[in-house]
Amino acid sequence: MGGAVSAGEDNDDLIDNLKEAQYIRTERVEQAFRAIDRGDYYLEGYRDNAYKDLAWKHGNIHLSAPCIYSEVMEALKLQQGLSFLNLGSGTGYLSTMVGLIIGPFGVNHGVELHKDVVEYANERLDDFIKNSDSFDRFEFCEPHFVVGNCLEISSDSHQYDRIYCGAGVQKDHENYMKILLKVGGILVMPIEDQLTQIIRTGQSSWESKNILAVSFAPLVQQNRTDSNKSEAVVLPALSVRSLQDLSRIYIRRTLSSLINEENPNRTNTPRASQKRKRRRCRRRRRINTYVFVGNQLIPQPLDSEEDECIEQESKDEEQEKDIEPIKPEEPQVNHLRDKILSLPLPESLKAYLLYYRKK
Ligand SMILES: C[S@@+](CC[C@H](N)C(=O)[O-])C[C@H]1O[C@@H](n2cnc3c(N)ncnc32)[C@H](O)[C@@H]1O
Fold first, then answer.
1. Between 226 and 294, where is the model more confident?
2. FRET label pair with 137: which of 47, 153, 259, 268, CA 20 to 30 Å apart?
3. How confident is the model at residue 267 (pLDDT cuts 50, 70, 90)?
4. Where does the record locate the signal sequence feature (predicted)?
């Protein structure tokens, strides 16, 4: 049972492989993927599989394969300040990555059918904000998740710049999804076994492009019986940030710029592919079909396999002899945290500026 790209040993390894296979193509998407450890979205005891290019399902918790998330993140063409709606937001893994790109003046909403999954997503989000080393290297748009069936969103809902649907959409619901999009916005969803990018070009015009052949579990349909008729799902309000919150964002931004001026050679990516492991006959192929087998989504190669063989590998090894040996990774310094802690401010204010993070 193979993945579309080689299995990684850790998150960085997985991202290296996704980059090498060209599923990840832009720097901002790469940074978001490196900042969020996919293993953190797995339950204890299952984490070993987190760095394989495979979907994972356990009870109601369900993550798509990393190569699909890579294609989705690239196709969404995310930018700072955009509004994003995730339909079937699941564990919040994708929404959290999106939040790192759209930044504090974006909007980040998710709708998920299962209450226990929303609780799980909120726990994971809280853990990211409190404990992740990445948090201080980005400006973040915190996702807000609501429980409900995303096919029952209230008809007076606001529209979004970017929408992703994480479960298979029936043709009948295509227009419902398209109407949620602002003019100029981008919707990415699996429909008729194709991951599709739809751009709203005008009030009643859309352009569609197939990205990848896929097979997603379908969206759960609305409950249509009158006795169980559920209420329309109300999306979170488009709230304005408080003056206090805005001050924190601008103080942190100013301090980060100062730090960058003081250390012009510092990069925002903690590890720029420093680790390149040798693998015999590494498979470099793009997989373009996915099928469900039981509860696993299995990549099915359609293209001919292009196995990179030992001959090429020994050439690489020859070349690598001329390259400087890899230095051991230096421990990450949190410059922003250090700077805030060094300010002549009351401890309570420093704690606020640090989002009450302990590390
Ligand atoms: C493949 S998972 C998406 C995972 C998500 N992208 C993540 O980052 O964890 C699909 C999700 O869609 C949810 N779902 C299915 N039908 C739904 C519906 N009608 N309304 C809302 N959520 C739905 C499922 O419960 C599941 O969590």
1. 226
2. 47
3. low
4. none
Are the CB atoms for 143 and 120 separated by under 8 Å?
A: no
Q: What is d(CA 316, CA 312) in angstroms, rounded to the nearest whole number?
A: 6
**Ligand 1 and 137: CB distance under 6 A:** no
Q: Which atom of ligand 1 is nearest to the CA of 216?
A: 1
**Residue type at 265?**
N
Rounded Cα–Cα distance for residues 199 and 190 (Å):
14
**153 lies in some domain:** yes
Model pTM score:
0.86
Instruction: State whether the beta carbon of 113 lies less than 6 angstroms from ligand 1.
Output: yes
Tokens (6 digits) for 139:
């400006």
- What ligand 1 atom has the least distance to the C-alpha of 121? 9
Q: Is the CB of 88 under 6 A from ligand 1?
A: yes
Domain at 21, CATH number: 3.40.50.150
Q: Is residue 352 part of a domain?
A: no
Number of domains in the chain: 1
d(CA 95, CA 143): 6
Q: Hey, what are 312's tokens?
A: 């090429």
Residue type, 111: V
